[in-house]
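Sat 14:20. Reprocessing the chain from the morning session after the first attempt stalled halfway. Input below, unchanged.
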Amino acid sequence: MRTVHQLTLPRALHPGAWWLWALGMAVAASRTRNPVLLVLILAVTGFVVAARRSDAAWASSYTAFLKLGLVVIGVRVVLQALLSTRSQGNTVLFILPQIPLPDWANGVKLGGEVTLEALLTALYDGFQLAVMLCCIGAANSLASPRRLLKSLPGALYEMGVACVVALTFAPQLVTDARRIRAARRLRGRTRGSFRTTAMPVLEGALDRSVELAAAMDSRGYGRTAQVPRAQRRTTAVSVLLGLLGILLGVYALLTDAMSFPIAAATLVVGLLLSVGAMAIGRQRVTRTRYRPDPWALPEWLVVASGAVAAGAMVTAAARGVYGLLLAGPLVVPPVPVLPVVGVLIGLAPALVAPPLVRRAVT
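Finished this time. Tokens:
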């Protein structure tokens, strides 16, 4: 058993805590188009990533998500410039050559007048999506994908092992290809076809697959406990209904397709069904874990900070707080107090998450 002293040592935070915190920040970003709040959310996630990311190769993915966000904003603005109409604003910036369209595309234009209001609206919409992508990028930079898959419940054990194997062998294929090309250059063969490179790579992949299958079989992989057929069917139906409830609840909360109580109740019921199905399904898997990731006070604090940020933004949206949605694209963005305080609480992981640097303990 782990002692309290072991849980407080510098260690890697549980990957599930990072993902829950990032999802909370993404939910907060989905409830507003105020550029001030979106910039604040982006600054909070970037600061936490800079303070708590590791030196692993996957820890630098936040920069890639930032670049992807810029691409999303650019595509959104370009499409709005090509397809916008005069009804979206009266401040004309420039006029593009208009391309005539057939009669079946009546009501759609390509080119023509481009207004300032339409571009600002597209900029705010694209910026919102870019910030949500950066929140997911923060989770990818902070949480190890292997440790996350190993932390899956017992009911998803086979899927987790398959994903871990895929994540392990995909980079090895690139390494094998580089090694084969280097060996060919050492032998003086600077030119080679795809066949001469692909065959050794395929042969190495097959050899590793056979070795992995033998190792997994010797460790008892695939052996399951005997459970009644009715229990297996109940588990499958519960998982399906739970996932459907989670999808409907999240979609309703993000798009206001249902009232807030109904959407929240749907999400809660889906979560309860999924958790119950996981608890029942794990009885089939008879396995142990070597050094499972702990879930201690730092994990609870990190998850709570993301939940507070999302809850503050959802509460402000339900109360109709002025400033979450701008009255117009040319309006100066206000700074509402409640959402700002909630988003700033999202900075807590930079302080409460245990550091990754190992220190000598005397």
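The two ends are 22 Å apart (CA to CA).
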